[in-house]
Amino acid sequence: MANKISVLLVDDHAVVRAGYKTYLSLSERIGAVYEADRGETACQVYDKQTPDVVVMDLSMPGLGGLESVRRLLVRYPHCKILVFSIHNELVYVTRAIKAGAKGYITKNNEPDTLVTAVCTLAEGGTYIEPALAQQLAVNMAIGQDEAYKVKSLSPREFDIFCLLANGLSTREAADKLCLSYKTVCNHSTAIKEKLSVKTMSELTLLASRQGIVKTSA
Amino acid sequence: MANKISVLLVDDHAVVRAGYKTYLSLSERIGAVYEADRGETACQVYDKQTPDVVVMDLSMPGLGGLESVRRLLVRYPHCKILVFSIHNELVYVTRAIKAGAKGYITKNNEPDTLVTAVCTLAEGGTYIEPALAQQLAVNMAIGQDEAYKVKSLSPREFDIFCLLANGLSTREAADKLCLSYKTVCNHSTAIKEKLSVKTMSELTLLASRQGIVKTSA
DNA sequence: CGAAATGCCGGGAAAACTTCCAGGGCTTTT
DNA sequence: AAAAGCCCTGGAAGTTTTCCCGGCATTTCG
């Protein structure tokens, strides 16, 4: 039997981290559980502890989960990241995988699933929630729908898409991303082209259907 | 000193419930902590245990948090519900309060805040996260009730509002209404002014929240 | 009834925005 | 090394929006 698996939990809610930690500690295969409250600090903790697996929440203030995944991988190309999110939309799954995550499960699972996934990753495998993996397959087959089109956006385009759909003006989005306003304009045109919509309203509606913007509880 | 406060935790994530429970149990004022994994079961548990306070997550599969609040209140008009959500947007707060919740706090708070809120509700009070309560007050003062603003639109403006929010371009809306496109442009400006939004996306999001456009079947 | 208010319609000029095109830098793939 | 894709930017041209204006019809009120 190998050594116990060490885990780094990244989530901005202390309460939530406590819950995960409790469950992870129940498993005999899992040893130390470190914590970080956001992407920025995750790097530092990783540096010190070099955990076997990183469990990353997607929705966090600051960098956000996806960007955190990317940055971690820049510094530690071989680190194994399991994204653990509340979102069960396929868009997020594919984004996470493309960003370099080795696994994706939602928080709706039994706690055991988290342990299983962590172990799988520790052994060098990948773990994607079965239900989602299946949907993903079906989706591939159907091919030509909105989710597919959203997936066709480049990472940068997706960022801008989210901001614009949430009501930011071209200029505000540019400021937020530290880009020229013309750049965002050009991306915006490309996005509308790829999603085959003509107006910003259509774009927002599509985003709403895809669960990328939230309009109500 | 009164009896200890009994609490019912409603959240679909077992992992998350565990975290809350741990923290709640640290307080001497809090006694039994029951759990339910969704709105449907919350009623049953409430029936058996009649807890002093219900702590309800907003985003849940099935009924969803808001609807669960309403249903609980139908059966138990005096039950004290504290909504505990990740959302810090005012929309969610107002909806929760309208649904009959006695308190609202976000998950970004220190765990102690949850305890404080639970105690306040148990004593018959209300607890709304200070930062949000302040925003809400400001919001009221300014008169930013979205529904109210929509009503302030003239009949013609409302027509145009609907068309634009549904994704039509200014020109298409003009054609549809047999108007000069300049007219629609001018109306559009007035509409945005009245609704205090800057972009078409914001306008669409508002329309979506107000149920004026439908985003999903 | 006259006057004022409000809603509706659109023109012109100026400002803002988008589109189209072109180019440079970077990384990954072949 | 070449090709391809993404990202960023700028200029020029085209389009849209804004702002300000006046005209018209209806309603309200002194």
From TrEMBL, chains A, B:
Keyword DNA-binding belongs to the record: yes
Cited PROSITE patterns: HTH_LUXR_2 (PS50043), RESPONSE_REGULATORY (PS50110)
Matches recorded under SMART domains: HTH_LUXR, REC
Domain named Response regulatory: residues: 6-122
Alphabetical keyword list: DNA-binding, Phosphoprotein
DNA-binding among keywords: yes
Modified residues (4-aspartylphosphate): 57
Gene Ontology MF terms: DNA binding
GO aspect biological process, one term: regulation of DNA-templated transcription
Gene3D superfamilies from the UniProt entry: 3.40.50.2300
Pfam (any one): Response_reg
Domain (HTH luxR-type): residue spans on this chain: 146-211
Protein name, UniProt field: LuxR family transcriptional regulator
Organism this protein belongs to: Methylomonas denitrificans
Lineage: Bacteria, Pseudomonadati, Pseudomonadota, Gammaproteobacteria, Methylococcales
